Amino acid sequence: MSYGIQVKDESGDIFFDDSILAIRKTENLILARGSSGTEIIENFDENSGVIFINPIGSVSRQVLTYSFDNSSKQFTYTVDDNFDIESISVLFISFA
Questions:
Q1: How far, in Å, are 1, 39, 76, 81, 90 from residue 73 at the CA level?
Q2: How many CA atoms lie within 13 A of 2 on its CB side?
Q3: Residue 55: closest CA among 26, 86, 92
Q4: What is the pLDDT of residue 90?
Q5: Coil, helix or strand for 95?
Q6: Local confidence pLDDT in tens for the 96 residues of the chain
Q7: 6-8 vs 14-17, strand pairing mode
């Protein structure tokens, strides 16, 4: 028996299988409630990676608006300030 990680896309197709590719953390940002800005994520390519958004706490609606420009590596964001949690973790994972 073997264990591993598979990530599937919205169609149910395998997007990532750790028996074929390795994963690594490229960057982890902690964004405060009510903040906005732009960060450069140098070693991240959205064609071979994924962005995980995790509110630190519990929310029932979208609280982060963001965009990522793959050519300039700019991650631009705005975090809503009308919710009870203090921050949001944004994790950039690359597949190799």
A1: 40, 8, 10, 26, 15
A2: 6
A3: 86
A4: 95
A5: strand
A6: 456 777 888 899 887 777 776 778 899 999 998 899 999 999 999 988 889 988 877 776 778 899 999 999 999 999 988 777 778 999 999 887
A7: antiparallel
Return the pLDDT at 62.
76
What is the pLDDT at residue 2?
59
Q: Would you call 38 exposed, middle or buried from its count of C-beta atoms within 10 A (0-12, 13-18, 19+)?
A: exposed
Residue with tokens 């071979």: 48
Please tell me the distance from the alpha carbon of residue 47 to that of residue 70, in angstroms, as a whole number. Answer: 8
The closest of 27, 23, 31, 25 to 65, measured between CA atoms, is: 31
Tokens of 6: 């598979």
Euclidean distance between CA atoms 49 and 76, whole angstroms: 17
State how far the Cα of 15 lies from the Cα of 9, in Å rounded to an integer.
Answer: 6
Amino acid at 54: N
